[in-house]
Design goal:
The chain is of the alpha/beta class. It is built from 14 helices and 14 strands. Helix 7 (179-191) links the parallel strand 6 and strand 7 (195-199). It starts with 14 loop residues before the first helix and ends in a 9-residue tail after the last helix. Bound molecules: pyridoxal-5'-phosphate. Pyridoxal-5'-phosphate is lined by residues 34, 96-98, 122, 167, 171, 199, 201, 230, 232-233, 238, 241, 243.
C-alpha cells in the first residue's frame, strides 16, 4: 500500500472480502453479505430486456437521471409519505444508494466538518466521510435493545458539526427508529442548524407495527434533509445499482454537482425498469414485506432455539444476536470460527464500530435468503457446542 493516500489507510480491508473468501473455502452458507438469493419482479426484468433490445437507454441517460424515473421517485415519496418532492429539481438518480451517499458526503461535507453517526454503522459511511475529508463522530446504539443514544448524540455536537447521518431501518442492527427517537434527532438538528443525511435503503422492509418514518416528514426537517433510496434493496436487484437522493432543490443541487462528475450517468435500461417498479401497486410492497418477515421469523426463531439472545429485528435484511448468551466472549472471534465449526458465515458488529466495545458481543445474520437455505443454516448450527469453547 505504498501509494494509498493516508486518509484511506484505515479502509484497506473489508470484512466482506475476508468472510466471503472463508465462505467459499469452507463451503459455508453465506448469511454474511446482504443480498437476496431470489431476483425481484419478472416484469421489471422484462422491461430492462425490452429496453436493451429496442435501444432505449443504451446510450448515456440524462445526467441527473431519466425524467420518468425522477418523476416516479417523486410520486413514490408522495404516495407513501405525503412528501412533496419536485421530480425536476428535487431528485437525482445515482449508481446505487452508495453513490448517492458518497455524492452527498462530497457535496455537503468540507475539510474537518464533523458528521455524527450512530454505530455500528454501514461500512460505506466511514470510507465516504474520509473521502470527503470529514471527521466521523460515532455515537452508540446502546442498551440491550440497541437503541440510538440521544443524550450521547446531543453531547457530541460541537461548533464543527455539520451533518447528522442516520439509517433506519438500520443496518446492521435491524432496529427501526421510533417516531420519538426521530423527533429527538430532529430537535437536535434544528437547534444546531445541522443537515441530515437519511439513508432509507430498507424503507419498505419494516415488520409488524414498526412502521418506517422518513425524518424529512417531521416539521422543519424536509428543508435540511437529503433522503437516500436504493432500488436494489427495494426490488431485489442489488446488481443493477440504481439508487437516488431526494429532497429540497438547494440540497439536491449540491449532490448533483458532485455526482455528475463521479459517473455522469449509469444504468440506462435499468432506470426504465425501476421507474416501472416504483409505480407497481401496493400489493408488491406488502407482499415483499410479508415474505421477508417470514424469513426473519425462521432465522430468528431458529437462533433463539439454539440459545442465542436475539435482538428482535424490526426491519432491514438482518437480525442481530448477542453471543455472550452462548458463552462466546467476542463476536469477531465467533464469526471467524463459525465457518470452520458449522459452515455458516455471519458478520460481527465490531467491524462496523470505531469503539470496539460497542460491537463486541453482537453478530449480524442476513435473512434475505430462501426459507430452505435459512433452515439448512439452522440445521448446521444445531450441533454447535454450547457453551462456546473459544
Ligand atoms: C446496501 C446498502 C446501501 C447501498 O445500496 P446500493 O443501492 O446497493 O448502493 C446503502 N445503505 C445501506 C444501509 C445498505 O444496507
Amino acid at each position: 500500500m505504498r501509494y494509498l493516500v493516508p486518509r484511506m489507510s484505515e479502509h484497506i480491508t473489508s470484512i466482506f472480502g475476508e468472510m466471503s473468501t472463508l465462505a467459499a473455502a469452507t463451503e459455508s452458507i453465506n448469511l454474511g453479505q446482504g443480498f437476496p438469493d431470489t431476483d425481484g419482479p419478472e416484469e421489471m426484468k422484462e422491461i430492462a430486456r425490452e429496453c436493451i433490445s429496442a435501444g432505449r437507454g443504451n446510450q448515456y441517460p440524462p445526467p441527473h437521471g431519466l425524467p420518468a424515473l425522477r418523476e416516479a421517485v417523486a410520486a413514490h415519496q408522495k404516495r407513501f409519505y405525503d412528501l412533496d418532492v419536485d421530480g425536476d429539481t428535487g431528485v437525482v438518480i445515482t449508481t446505487g444508494a452508495s453513490e448517492a451517499l458518497n455524492s452527498a458526503f462530497l457535496g455537503l461535507i468540507d475539510d474537518g466538518d464533523e458528521v455524527l453517526v450512530f454505530e455500528p454503522m454501514f461500512d460505506v459511511y466511514a470510507a465516504g466521510i474520509s473521502l470527503a475529508r470529514g471527521v466521523r463522530v460515532a455515537v452508540p446504539l446502546s442498551g440491550p435493545g440497541l437503541r440510538p443514544d440521544i443524550d450521547r448524540l446531543r453531547a457530541a455536537v460541537t461548533p464543527r458539526t455539520r451533518v447528522i447521518l442516520i439509517n433506519s431501518p438500520h443496518n446492521p442492527s435491524g432496529i427501526v427508529f421510533t417516531r420519538a427517537e426521530l423527533e429527538a434527532i430532529a430537535a437536535i438538528a434544528i437547534e444546531h442548524d445541522l443537515l441530515v443525511i437519511s439513508d432509507e435503503a430498507y424503507e419498505h422492509l419494516w415488520f409488524d407495527d414498526d412502521v418506517h418514518i422518513p425524518i424529512s416528514t417531521l416539521p422543519g426537517m424536509f428543508e435540511r434533509t437529503v433522503t437516500i433510496g436504493s432500488g436494489g434493496k427495494m426490488f431485489s436487484f442489488t446488481g443493477w445499482k440504481i439508487g437516488w437522493a431526494s429532497g429540497p432543490r438547494d440540497l439536491i443541487a449540491a449532490v448533483r454537482v458532485v455526482r455528475q462528475h463521479l459517473t455522469y450517468a449509469s444504468g440506462g435500461p435499468f432506470q426504465y425498469a425501476m421507474a416501472h417498479g416504483l409505480g407497481m401497486p401496493d400489493q408488491y410492497y406488502t407482499e415483499y414485506r410479508r415474505s421477508m418477515s417470514e424469513q426473519r421469523d425462521i432465522l430468528s426463531a431458529g437462533l433463539a432455539t439454539l440459545g442465542f439472545d436475539v435482538i428482535p429485528s424490526q426491519g432491514s435484511y438482518y437480525v442481530t444476536t448477542n453471543v455472550h448468551s452462548i458463552g462466546a466472549p467476542d463476536g469477531l472471534e465467533f464469526c471467524r470460527a463459525l465457518p470452520h465449526r458449522a459452515r455458516v458465515v455471519a458478520i460481527p458488529h465490531q467491524v462496523f464500530c470505531d469503539d470496539e466495545s460497542v460491537g463486541k458481543p453482537y453478530v449480524r445474520w442476513a435473512f434475505c435468503k430462501r426459507p430452505a437455505v435459512l433452515q439448512e443454516a439452522i440445521t448446521r448450527l444445531g450441533p454447535l457446542q454450547i457453551p462456546w469453547q473459544p
